[in-house]
Amino acid sequence: MMKSCILCKSESSSPVFNENGIPIVECKNCGHVYSSYEQEEHYEGYWDGENQTYDLEWWDVAHRAVYSDFISNYLSKDSGKLLDVGCGLGFFVKSVLTARPKWEAFGYEISTQAVEFAKKQNGLTTVYAGLVQDSKLPANSFDIITLWDVIEHIPKPHFLLEYLFTLLKPGGVLFLQTPNFPIQLGKAKLKVMLKGMKEGVHYLEAKDHVNNYKMKTLAELGKQCGFIKPEYKVLMPILSVSGSKSKSAVFAKLLYYYFTKAVFVLSFKTVNWNNTLFLTLKKP
């Protein structure tokens, strides 16, 4: 069981949600939220499994809009070098190479099965299996490093981010994308209120999302690892709802995105009701 906060080391916490017997708690000192479930540090089971199949409508088609939005916002230079950590099936790396052919894009993924798919099905030659910390990549060599839906899975993220800091060029950018915990908590509580607590339903994914971030705590994590100038944006959503192909559900999700983006802009980037946090940090 995780007993202390990763940001301030305090062991004083209070429960905010209980997911099928697993308490999710909030640090009383700094407000960071974490699951009491003790996941192994380098969990390989997310992509792996015998006769594993992948929902390509979700991992490819539904993600195209947010990947395109990212490229438009952050890859304005004609050329550069990008590293995607936890690259999964490689669709983001493929998107970068397609949209920005003068960029070099690399991926690292702990799952050998996912990397095999990325190489064989997506035709990628610059994705590698293993821990990026063991990669021996050259220091000060990347313009931007991305982590899509990765940071929430890592019990002790400081070690990873401190290593990635060394890989970035001075002035380089670290991009973190992760669920926006306060909004996800509200949705989880609403599900329980309407349908009760059931096995197999997505609430807060207490066994997978072992650290849950707010704007303040995600920026604080970056600061503790040497990064500066935290900046949030609201990017396009994944154009699917829990794997559903319902057009009305996607339309509702888009309406919510435009609403939250307007609130974010009008509040001078202080109020973020979006489902997802998109944060960039810089290496001095």
Strand order of the largest sheet: 6-5-4-7-8-11-10
Helix content: 25-40%
Main sheet makeup: 7 strands, mixed
Structural class: alpha/beta
Q: Helical segment tally? A: 8
**How are helices and strands ordered from N to C?**
EEEHHEHEHEEHEHEHEHE
**What is the arithmetic mean of pLDDT?**
93
Q: Enumerate the spans where pLDDT stays under 50 for 5 or more consecutive residues.
A: none
General shape: globular
Number of strands: 11
Alpha-carbon distance between the two ends: 36 Å
3D architecture notes:
- With 284 residues, this protein is an alpha/beta fold.
- 31% of the residues lie in helices and 23% in strands.
- The chain has 8 helices and 11 strands.
- It has helices at 56-59, 64-74, 91-99, 112-120, 158-167, 181-195, 215-224, 247-266, and strands at residues 13-19, 22-27, 33-35, 81-85, 104-109, 127-129, 142-148, 168-179, 211-212, 228-233, 276-282.
- The strands form 2 sheets. Strands 6-5-4-7-8-11-10 form a 7-stranded mixed sheet. Strands 1-2-3-9 form a 4-stranded antiparallel sheet, with helices on one face.
- β7, α5 and β8 form a beta-alpha-beta unit.
- α2 (64-74) packs across α3 (91-99).
- The longest helix is centred in the C-terminal third of the chain and has 20 residues, at 247-266.
- The two termini are 36 Å apart.
